[in-house]
Amino acid sequence: MVGVIAVVGRPNVGKSTLVNRILGRRAAVVEDVPGVTRDRVSYDAEWAGTDFRLVDTGGWESGVEGIDSAVADQAEIAVGLADTVILVVDGQVGMTATDERIVSMLRASGKTVTLAVNKIDGQSAEYLTAEFWKLGMGQPYGISAMHGRGIGELLDAAVAAL
Ligand code: GDP
Ligand code: MG
């Protein structure tokens, strides 16, 4: 049995873009509007000689009402089935109340978490990463899923936690 890494986070932070980047192909659906990933979808992946299952999440995020609780429910199911978690946040938006709610749920789960601060597209944006130390989830890894920045360091940490 290979280990399972769940990718969780608010809608639109770039979870599916990150999954595609890790897979090296466009398997997960990426959209400019929240709510595209309706189910947990899992893929076979590999990093530095370690095979694992990568689970993209985000379902039931199309409705505006109850969006926070729906996202948290979905994340919770994926987290329960995972060995370790990548929490994705949006470095351009900054920390939100939903990020903090997801962190509470992750703490309660007892699972290890690697924190990815996405949309750090260039070196000039790196300062945005440090704010997320405040989430209390350890080192924030600044990445750009879109441009492939920082993915190796993130995966080293996540795979080490399997
Ligand atoms: P998800 O809802 O968390 O799965 O987010 P998606 O992967 O569907 O991406 C949401 C939007 O964010 C899309 O318009 C992506 O192109 C954009 N996006 C994802 N990663 C990055 C990134 O590293 N930098 C920037 N600037 N945009 C990104
Ligand atoms: Mg998605």
Automatic annotation (TrEMBL):
It is found in: Cytoplasm. Residues 3-162 form the EngA-type G domain. Transmembrane segments: none annotated. Belongs to the TRAFAC class TrmE-Era-EngA-EngB-Septin-like GTPase superfamily. EngA (Der) GTPase family. Belongs to the cytidylate kinase family. Type 1 subfamily. This is Cytidylate kinase. It comes from Bifidobacterium minimum.
